[in-house]
Design brief:
mainly alpha, globular
């Protein structure tokens, strides 16, 4: 029962309290660039979540059974970046061959995921936090869902902003960053709630 409570806290913390986009400020490029339309934001969020889960499932054993065993932890960043890039390329080839429709829908987003620092951040932070494999996967799922939630919320907010009469000095990037900061402040309000959920 205690293990289940811990996993729930890890999941909810990753989605709300330690949201990679809104609290840790990782993955800002797709957050600002691909959140103009809801379908694009959702597609990007789902694709990033899937790649995060794949990357975490591959990097955790490589860190513990290869890099740590051979005392080569200093190669972590390079190895993880290569793994993420390889996974994205394999995923892209498989989708192109097995599901051309899905490939066309996600084709624009897949190359962007390779350079998304949130994916690398998740894999490294799982190691730093000392998570077991199961905890690492739960944390990664929460980070992916948090990324998806942030993308969808911001997409909805941007559609409202586009319809609003914004003063000239605030149009464009300025109002986008101001709106992002308000969402970030709202998410920081979750701090302390999740940790005391089972208190």
């Amino acid at each position: 029962m205690e293990q289940l409570k811990l996993l729930i806290v890890i999941l909810l913390s990753a989605v709300f309290v330690d949201n990679y986009v809104l609290c840790r400020f990782l993955g800002i490029c797709p957050f600002l660039g691909v959140s103009k339309k809801l379908d694009q934001a959702t597609g990007m969020g789902l694709a990033v979540t899937f790649v995060m889960l794949l990357a975490a499932a591959v990097t955790w054993p490589i860190q513990h059974f290869v890099l740590d065993a051979l005392d080569m932890g200093y190669l972590q960043n390079i190895v993880f970046i290569l793994i993420i890039a390889t996974l994205v390329q394999i995923l892209e080839m498989l989708l192109k061959k097995l599901s051309p429709a899905l490939y066309k829908g996600l084709g624009v987003y897949l190359p962007l995921i390779t350079t998304n620092c949130a994916v690398l951040g998740v894999t490294i932070n799982n190691i730093i936090d000392g998570y077991s494999f199961i905890e690492s996967m739960v944390s990664t799922l929460g980070c992916g869902l948090g990324f998806l939630l942030a993308m969808v919320l911001f997409s909805g907010l941007r559609s409202r902003i586009n319809e609003a009469n914004i003063p000239a000095p605030f149009r464009g990037l300025a109002v986008t960053l101001i709106a992002a900061s308000f969402i970030s402040l709202a998410f920081m309000g979750f701090a302390g709630i999740v940790e005391n959920l089972f208190a």
